[in-house]
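hey
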């Protein structure tokens, strides 16, 4: 049985672990590896190494940093298939989705290659006679990245390329459900020339997370995961004096107005609802149909959904299994709850037949969903779509704005005025117009509102650079002997 251990100071840790986690291949239901869980001592060792590495890395030239990132980009491209296979084997998503997540992560590496430009400060000459003022941004120190199971490569890549480019050192605590992809990433960073200790990985559960949240050597925490844990991480990390950004769960609505292109909307509902088996924070989960189009739209979605082949992601299926049996059962229990609460099942994923013991659940569509039902109120994080029928745009908007989550949303319409009004009025961080999932673009920042984000910095883009640096303003006066060495005029009371 393969054993996966921590990556500290440029190599795999040989430490014996009392506690381990099972890693599954969700398509077969078999355990594929055991992952070591970090103790407080493991985390302390990683922080000590990252602190030591910081003393040199923070003084590395911007050229050196970008050379490492350019080399890393090449290596990830060369190893993309290998990375995608690791992701599919432990997460279950189909290979094309796995490869797509690596591509999205690489875009942040490419963005971080522009760090010499991004770190340029401001300069004001002669604020007083002979006095200049300028601003610089400096790294924080060792930072922690705690990531969820659903994007084991991309989510860490939202953060570490920028953190490293800004001169910080990093400790990643990946999800214990799919820990292998980040280990290959660590090897590729080393191969790219990153000095040992700048990038470290500790595996584990709450013990490792708590140790990172309270360790005085950790200066900032970037977290992505479910809302209750995001809130906990934000509260604990900030209480310990750290800078924290914690991205949480989602319940993304897609509003379909009566004038929308229903074929486009149905295609979007299928891709955004059932892609990656709905295990995406930008998945559409609630379709708000503004009457009279609901019947027609449901028919079109059904037509398409019945063609989706659920099966092993390495063997040409359209949709893979869910990540674990526990998660599959939880999603199935939401379907049972929806049925009990009176929603109408149009097609039922519990009936899916796949020839293996994997964690299978096919696509499910509910109609007649009401805003007080659990399948509407809570994040399901599986291939389950709910249709809510409403009479007007205002009713649709109120549903979105009243929901506790505000990660992403989409509107389908041919009315530019309505779309513009929606983008202005909706209380959600990321909006798609005739686009189901507004995908993360590296040079914009990514993050939601309300219970989908705790903290005030979104991920990557210029907000990422800001998060991983702190500002300093320098006021400078140099006496100039060639002009008499006298330089007066700076106001005494400023
Ligand atoms: P999760 O909250 O269970 O786990 C996330 C991380 O927290 C993991 O590393 C895990 O080991 C750790 N963790 C779990 N329980 C903990 C505890 N009690 N104390 C401390 N740490 C703990 O999330 P998940 O199931 O891995 O991922 C799915 C969730 O992530 C969904 O809610 C999804 O919406 C969310 N997500 C959000 C975004 C976003 O951008 N907002 C992106 C991807 C995923």
């Amino acid at each position: 049985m393969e054993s996966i251990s921590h990556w500290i100071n440029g190599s795999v840790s040989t430490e014996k672990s009392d506690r381990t986690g099972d890693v599954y291949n969700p398509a077969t239901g078999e355990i594929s590896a055991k992952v070591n869980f970090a103790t407080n001592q493991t985390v302390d060792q990683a922080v000590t190494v990252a602190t030591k590495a910081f003393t040199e890395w923070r003084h590395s030239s911007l050229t050196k940093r970008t050379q490492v990132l350019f080399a890393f980009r090449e290596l990830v491209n060369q190893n993309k298939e290998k990375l995608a296979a690791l992701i599919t084997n432990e997460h279950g998503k189909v290979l094309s989705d796995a490869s797509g997540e690596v591509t999205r992560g690489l875009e942040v590496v490419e963005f971080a290659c522009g760090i010499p430009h991004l770190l340029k400060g401001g300069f004001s000459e002669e604020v007083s006679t002979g006095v200049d003022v300028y601003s610089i941004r400096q790294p924080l120190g060792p930072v922690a990245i705690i990531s969820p199971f659903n994007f084991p490569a991309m989510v860490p890549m939202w953060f570490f390329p920028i953190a490293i480019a800004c001169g910080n050192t990093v400790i990643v605590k990946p999800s214990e459900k799919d820990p292998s992809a980040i280990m290959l990433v660590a090897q590729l960073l080393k191969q790219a020339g990153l000095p040992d200790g700048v990038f470290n990985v500790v595996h584990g559960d709450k013990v490792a997370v708590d140790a990172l949240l309270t360790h005085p050597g950790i200066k900032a925490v970037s977290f992505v995961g479910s809302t209750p844990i995001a809130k906990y991480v934000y509260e604990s990390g900030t209480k310990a004096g750290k800078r924290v950004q914690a991205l949480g769960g989602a319940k993304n609505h897609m509003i379909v107005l009566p004038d929308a292109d229903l074929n486009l909307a149905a295609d979007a509902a299928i891709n955004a609802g059932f892609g990656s088996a709905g295990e995406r924070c930008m998945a559409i989960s609630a379709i708000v149909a503004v009457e009279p189009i609901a019947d027609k739209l449901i028919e079109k979605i059904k037509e398409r959904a019945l063609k989706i082949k659920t099966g092993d992601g390495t063997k040409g299926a359209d949709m893979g299994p869910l990540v674990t049996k526990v998660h599959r059962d939880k999603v199935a229990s939401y379907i049972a709850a929806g049925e009990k609460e009176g929603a109408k099942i149009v097609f039922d994923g519990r009936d899916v037949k796949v020839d293996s013991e994997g964690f299978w659940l096919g696509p499910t569509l509910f109609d007649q969903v009401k805003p007080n039902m659990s399948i509407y109120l809570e994040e399901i994080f599986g291939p389950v779509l709910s249709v809510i029928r409403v009479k007007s745009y205002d009713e649709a908007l109120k549903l979105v704005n009243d929901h506790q989550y505000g990660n992403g949303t989409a509107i389908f319409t041919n009315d530019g005025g309505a779309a513009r009004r929606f983008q202005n009025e909706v209380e959600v961080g990321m909006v798609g117009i005739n686009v189901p999932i507004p995908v993360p673009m590296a040079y914009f920042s990514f993050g939601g509102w309300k219970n989908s984000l705790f903290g005030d910095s979104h991920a990557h883009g210029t907000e990422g650079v800001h998060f991983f640096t702190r500002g300093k303003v320098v006021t400078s006066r140099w006496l100039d002997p060639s002009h008499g060495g006298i330089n007066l005029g700076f106001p005494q009371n400023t």
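The chain is about 40% helix and 20% strand. The mean pLDDT is 96.
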